[in-house]
Amino acid sequence: MLDNLTTETRNRRTMDLDQLPTISVLELIQEEDAKVSLAIKEKLPEIELVTKRVIESFKEGGRLIYLGAGTSGRMGILDAVECVPTFGTDPEMVQGVIAGGDAAIRFAVEGAEDSPEQGAADLEKLDLSAKDTVLGIAASGRTPYVIGGLRYATGVGAATASLACNKDAEISKYAEYPIEIVTGPEVLTGSTRLKAGTAQKMVLNMISTAAMVGIGKTFSNLMVDVQPTNEKLVARAKSMIREITGCDVETASKYYEMSHHQVKAAVTMLLAGLNYEEARKRLEESDGFISRAIQQK
């Protein structure tokens, strides 16, 4: 029953929402949003377990698959899409699957979330394996589409995690690693694109970013696997080469070209005195970690 879900309960602080001046509405939204981070902090141990399992999947050549409907599905897709330019990952490595398919990214597909069979079928299309981790996302914690997908993932031996915004969520029963971020009643009753959506965005950011750090996609706090696909990112790539190695602008540009536009290779070449092929070999032997590559003898 929806009546039992805190995400569907009326927020007593906003009962006169339609009578308030705009600034008061904005203040209420901001004040409620501020509670989200604190709710997430309470669940860091659970988030850590999921992140470590994702790292294991990546190291085994597996994938992270987000599965959701509506806002929850869109949050998974957003995080997955951003991993490609930020960390230079293959688009297959982190994927978002949404009930109703690509059309549901922009338009509501009525009834799509009600089919557990479709959740299973959509994962089956991806040739899901035991190397993968499936993270089912549902603000309500009861979406049949997600439950069906988690059941299927369990059946093929994949790791399963869930992210809900209600306590004792139904989807938690179908996940090895459940996360429940209780965000409470929304400013606008039932509009889980608000606090629940914010919580989902924050948690997915945390999991994917920490997992990428865990597999060598960063050096210090720099995203050295960035894909330089526009002028801004090219400038950022060269700036990182200078920042890490202490070289001048001309040298950074030279090694940027010599490394085939790969920051990690350029840095390894400069710091270890290697050519491109040697740097690439070192990085492969060091699981992508620059710090390990430059310390090799």
UniProtKB/TrEMBL annotation:
Pathway noted in the entry: Amino-sugar metabolism; N-acetylmuramate degradation
Catalysed reaction equations from the record: N-acetyl-D-muramate 6-phosphate + H2O = N-acetyl-D-glucosamine 6-phosphate + (R)-lactate
GO molecular function, one term: lyase activity
Keyword Transcription regulation recorded: no
InterPro entries (UniProt xref): Etherase_MurQ, Glucokinase_regulatory_CS, MURQ/GCKR, SIS_dom, SIS_dom_sf
Location of the SIS domain: 54-217
Active site per database record: 82 (proton donor), 113
A Pfam family per the record: GKRP_SIS_N
Self-association state and partner proteins as the record states: Homodimer.
Role noted for this protein: Specifically catalyzes the cleavage of the D-lactyl ether substituent of MurNAc 6-phosphate, producing GlcNAc 6-phosphate and D-lactate.
Note: A lyase-type mechanism (elimination/hydration) is suggested for the cleavage of the lactyl ether bond of MurNAc 6-phosphate, with the formation of an alpha,beta-unsaturated aldehyde intermediate with (E)-stereochemistry, followed by the syn addition of water to give product.
NCBIfam families assigned: N-acetylmuramic acid 6-phosphate etherase, PRK05441.1, PRK12570.1
Designated name of the protein: N-acetylmuramic acid 6-phosphate etherase
Organism: Paenibacillus haidiansis
